[in-house]
Amino acid sequence: MHICVLGQGYVGLPLAVRAAEVGHTVTGYEPDRARCEALAAGSSYVEDIGDDRLQAVLGSDTYYATSDPQDLKGFDVAVITVPTPLTDRAPDLSCVRDAGRVLAGWIEPGATVVLESTTHPGTTRDVLIPLLEEGSGLVAGRDFHVGFSPERIDPGNADWRLENTPKIVAGLTEGCLERVKAFYDTVTDVTVPASGLEEAELAKVFENTYRHVNIALVNELSRMAHTLGVDVWHTLELAATKPFGFTKFLPGPGVGGHCLPIDPVYLSHHVKARHGQTFRLIELAQDINESQPDYVVRRLQDALSRRFRRSVHGARILALGATYKPGTSDARQSPAVEVIDRLRQMGADVTVADPYVAVADGSCREIPFGPATATTATTVTVADFDAVVLLTPHNEFDLVRLAAEAAYVLDTRGVMAAESHIERL
Fold first, then answer.
1. Do 343 and 297 contact (CB within 8 A), yes or no?
2. Which of 147, 233, 373, 400 is the most buried (most CB within 10 A)?
């Protein structure tokens, strides 16, 4: 089939490459011309897709990256994988609308359009379909097929990839569902049919809401345990020995990435705007997790005052990790970035060490907190710093050396053994 994937980012590029690898002819539509040029040259900016995989599908002429909408002509299946961010703390579906308008003029009878972008229930039916029908002059469910299949990409996860992660599929009609399922059966091992579009849309935002709420729970537990003088990390290990009715979540500096800080807001905002009801648990979790970077800074401030009788202002601090989780260069919505920003705003002299997002020599993409001294943990003299805050525990960091040389460490991830000079969040 001729497959068009609109958006060649963390979600779209893996889907496009996988579809090309299994034998489809794939057009990767990406409005950003610089990205298109990189892809055409065989250079991947998405770490889950190595240059070798990209170059292989380019070499076999099964994949083509373009920013020209005319290249969408004649598609059998088009998948929309564009961002759904927040603007002024409200859902922003402008990219979905733009993609729908661009695609509508190229829909032919019998074609299939699938939305993968995370959104609130009703988006496919109430936002996307009217745009597709208006621009094409065709009727969804009769002349062409429409579906929703939520993305489940976890950047940097080598165990659960696109092809072996169960894929929820939904369609406007039974016929639409059959077409959507038939496509995804070619690129994924397991497809899970949903009874309707809204159920599939809700399932996606609930998956991330579940994590968001439970992370907020342990983050607040961590704060209370610190006040009580109780080791929260040992407490969680004890609780996790229960073989039923308990799932272990861990505290940290906050939540980040493309899902947790955003997706639950889509659900709570939609419920409030459409029905006037408040999803109180989501809003409470949002408040807790958004305030976690401030809590980390307060803990560090307290430690500097208590141990060294000095303030954050002018303190030399080594921040280990800037991405939102280990083993990835993804710094989107990273709480580590927020911690670093706050420390600098308070006058701290912060050196950032992250092997995945080097900035100083321009060899990697910049992380969104401005100029930084970017290095790795093995090329700095740890003893030169007043304090170290471990924000993202990349495997590349030598934690044994860190424990031996640092004057003080605030471990926000609980990966180091507690000692007199090492505190865990």
1. yes
2. 147
pLDDT 10s digits, 178-208: 999 999 999 999 999 999 999 999 999 999 9
Annotated catalytic residue 259: yes
Catalytic site residue from 36, 95, 176, 259? 259
pLDDT at 377: 52
How would you list the strands of the sheet with 316-320, edge to edge?
A: 374-375, 349-353, 316-320, 387-390, 409-411, 422-424
Distance (Å, whole) CA 25 – CA 34? 22
Q: Which two tokens stand for residue 104?
A: 């509508």
Residue where the block lists tokens 């059966």: 185
Q: Supply the DSSP string of 245-276, one letter for each residue.
A: S-------S---TTTTTTHHHHHHHHHHHHH-
Alpha helices in 279-421 (DSSP H): 280-308, 335-345, 399-405
Measure CA 338 to chain center. Answer: 16
Which residue matches tokens 């373009």? 66
Among residues 371, 367, 281, the alpha carbon closest in space to that of 332 is found at: 367
Residue that has been written with the tokens 């002018």 in this structure: 314
Q: What are phi and psi of 375, to 5 degrees?
A: -155, -170
333: left (phi over 0), alpha (psi -120 to 50) or beta: left
C-alpha to C-alpha distance for 129 and 132, rounded to whole angstroms: 5
**Average pLDDT of the residues in 131-135:** 98
Rounded Cα distance between 265 and 32, Å, is: 27
Asked if residues 301 and 311 have their Cβ atoms less than 8 Å apart, the reply is yes
Helix (H) or strand (E) holding 188: none
